[in-house]
């Protein structure tokens, strides 16, 4: 059972600054995620009070340089000025865009460390990630060993999901986690802001659904802006048609009722035109606040296959819309496609959980929908989702779940995850087995439509620990996830060694 239901000149100078050496000449400098390639050289770079951040005269990553300057002050005590078109000198940090290395993509970068330190990328995100590595290398002292690095992530989605439907997380807590994520090169924050226990963002279309403790729209816009500045996308989720207890408390007339009239207080009867209008109102209200590429509709744990027979209105609706062979499950799948059409019309891509996506006779969820696989108890397997044309995310319980509540006593082992888990290996409730690998749930290494993974914070019992304790608890897990989703060579041979690297890099600048 799921926890949630319980410049050209500057570029030219890079190649001549530091000669290549054998990769074995020195260990990689401590970083999480670890550098994909490192070639050591004699000497070191030292940050000085006179250090500057130097950009090309035109076309440099100005915003990223300014963020870098602020974070350098928090890390070293010195805030270097940002200058465009200056000739680099020893002690300067040089940032350039437009690398000819196409393999860097939008998030990769090159690092050349010598008398001056140079970050080269094709785009702003890559330049930003280069600055995060430099900050980690400066976390303990102001000297960085000389060498050259080339660093590129394996997976495009690397993130954190927060269940702030069951438990309220204030804007300060969320903003601190965003800074932590950026420090680890994580690029996706998934906000699950509605649940049976709470609806946590102010609403103008339906103020009656909003919980007493909630985020204002101004606070949400501030969170989204900070995340965007740190190259993190924010994905909002209103889970529907299940997990809607808080949203439906003021609307019993929209709750799903069985043949005997007994209402399911957390499930939407989407066969009702008023219920679909209610769902549309909420989705269209929040889409422009978050912007971005994605909308998450949840769509999990609505009904078990055997339970559809108790709700004959679902089958009647399905046959009226999808033909005489359709079943209640087809009605549910059709509702997922209805949300997909709604958000696609607004230029967004829909995401859902996977567990209810099988069982229909007449309807299949459109292949443009991104599917997040989380457990092996129900729904299609990862390879079946890929065969259906979907892009997928590994949200498997092992090792991506952090549950606040009774199941917190059996959280997945990060030691096992560090030693043996990969993003292409999917596991459900298999928590801490020595080798959590089931061939039927794995996908071939290098599968292009496997997007990555997230760490999932669920709150079965919100009072089981403080939000500060949760932040401490997920810190090492975010570091493991960052390493696994970047998928560079491991920074240490053992988990104990990995924790030593984590202590060496510390927390994000300004985060205690």
Molecular structure report:
It is built from 14 helices and 18 strands. Helix 8 packs across helix 9.
Give the key terms.
alpha/beta, 7-stranded mixed sheet, 8-stranded parallel β-barrel, elongated, 512 residues, disordered N terminus, 20% strand, single chain, 18 strands
What's the quick description here?
The protein is an alpha/beta fold.
Give helix % range.
Answer: 25-40%
| Distance, first to last CA | 35 Å
Biggest sheet architecture: 8 strands, parallel, barrel
> Low-confidence parts lasting 5 or more residues at pLDDT below 50?
1-25
The share of residues in extended strands comes to: 15-25%
The class by helix and strand makeup works out as alpha/beta
What is the mean pLDDT? Answer: 92
Q: Could you give the count of β-strands?
A: 18
So what's the overall shape?
A: elongated
Tally of helical runs: 14
Radius of gyration: 24 Å
Strand arrangement across the biggest beta sheet: 8-9-10-13-14-15-16-18
Topology:
Elements: H1 8-17, E1 37-46, E2 53-55, H2 62-76, E3 82-84, E4 93-97, E5 109-113, E6 117-121, H3 124-137, E7 143-151, E8 157-163, H4 171-183, E9 188-192, H5 217-229, E10 233-240, H6 245-248, E11 255-257, E12 263-268, H7 273-290, E13 294-298, H8 312-322, H9 328-344, E14 349-353, E15 370-373, H10 382-387, E16 392-394, H11 397-400, E17 401-404, H12 414-420, E18 450-459, H13 467-486, H14 495-505
Parallel strand pairs: 2-3, 2-4, 4-6, 8-9, 8-18, 9-10, 10-13, 13-14, 14-15, 15-16, 16-18, 17-18
Antiparallel strand pairs: 1-7, 5-6, 5-7, 11-12
Helix pairs in contact: 2-3, 4-5, 4-13, 8-9
């Amino acid at each position: 059972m799921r926890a949630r239901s319980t410049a050209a000149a500057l570029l030219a100078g890079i190649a001549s600054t530091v000669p290549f050496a054998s990769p074995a000449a020195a260990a990689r400098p401590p970083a999480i995620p670890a550098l994909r390639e490192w070639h050591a050289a004699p000497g070191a770079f030292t940050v000085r009070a006179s250090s500057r951040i130097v950009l090309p005269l035109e076309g440099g990553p100005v915003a990223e340089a300014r963020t870098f300057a602020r974070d350098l002050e928090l890390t070293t005590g010195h805030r270097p000025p940002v200058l465009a078109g200056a000739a680099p000198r020893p002690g300067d940090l040089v940032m350039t865009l437009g690398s000819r290395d196409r393999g860097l993509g939008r998030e990769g970068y090159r690092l050349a460390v010598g008398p001056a330190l140079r970050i080269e990328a094709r785009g702003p995100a890559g330049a930003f990630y280069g600055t995060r590595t430099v900050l980690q290398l400066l976390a303990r002292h102001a000297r960085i060993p000389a060498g050259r690095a080339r660093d590129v992530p394996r997976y495009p989605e690397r993130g954190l999901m927060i269940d702030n439907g069951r438990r309220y997380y204030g804007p300060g807590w969320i903003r601190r986690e965003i800074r932590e994520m950026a420090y680890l090169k994580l690029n996706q924050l998934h906000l699950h802001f509605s649940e049976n226990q709470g609806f946590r963002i102010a609403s103008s279309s339906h103020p009656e659904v909003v919980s007493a403790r909630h985020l204002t729209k101004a606070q949400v816009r501030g969170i989204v802006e900070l995340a965007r500045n740190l190259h993190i996308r924010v994905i909002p989720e209103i889970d529907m048609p299940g997990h809607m207890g808080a949203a439906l408390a003021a609307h019993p007339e929209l709750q799903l009722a069985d043949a005997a009239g007994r209402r399911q207080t957390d499930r939407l009867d989407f066969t009702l035109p008023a219920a679909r209008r209610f769902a549309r109102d909420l989705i269209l209200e929040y889409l422009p606040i978050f912007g971005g590429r994605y909308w998450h509709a949840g769509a999990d744990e609505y009904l078990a296959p055997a339970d559809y027979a108790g709700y004959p209105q679902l089958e009647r609706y399905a046959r009226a819309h999808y033909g005489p062979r359709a079943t209640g499950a087809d009605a549910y799948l059709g509702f997922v496609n209805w949300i997909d059409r709604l958000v696609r019309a607004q230029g967004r891509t829909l995401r859902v959980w996977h567990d209810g996506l099988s069982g229909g006779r007449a309807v299949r969820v459109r292949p443009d929908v991104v599917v997040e696989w989380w457990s092996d108890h129900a729904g299609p397997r990862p390879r079946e989702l890929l065969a259906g044309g979907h892009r997928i995310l590994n949200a498997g319980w092992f090792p991506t779940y952090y549950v606040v509540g009774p199941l917190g006593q059996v959280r997945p082992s990060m030691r096992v995850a560090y030693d043996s888990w990969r993003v292409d290996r999917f596991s459900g409730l298999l928590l801490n087995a020595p080798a959590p690998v089931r061939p039927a749930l794995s996908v071939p290494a290098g599968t292009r439509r496997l997007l990555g993974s997230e760490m999932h914070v669920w709150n079965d019992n919100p009072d089981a620990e403080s939000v500060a304790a949760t932040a401490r608890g997920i810190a090492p897990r975010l570091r493991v996830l960052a390493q696994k989703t970047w998928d560079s060579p491991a920074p240490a041979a053992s988990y104990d060694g990995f924790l030593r690297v984590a202590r060496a890099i510390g927390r994000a600048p300004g985060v205690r």
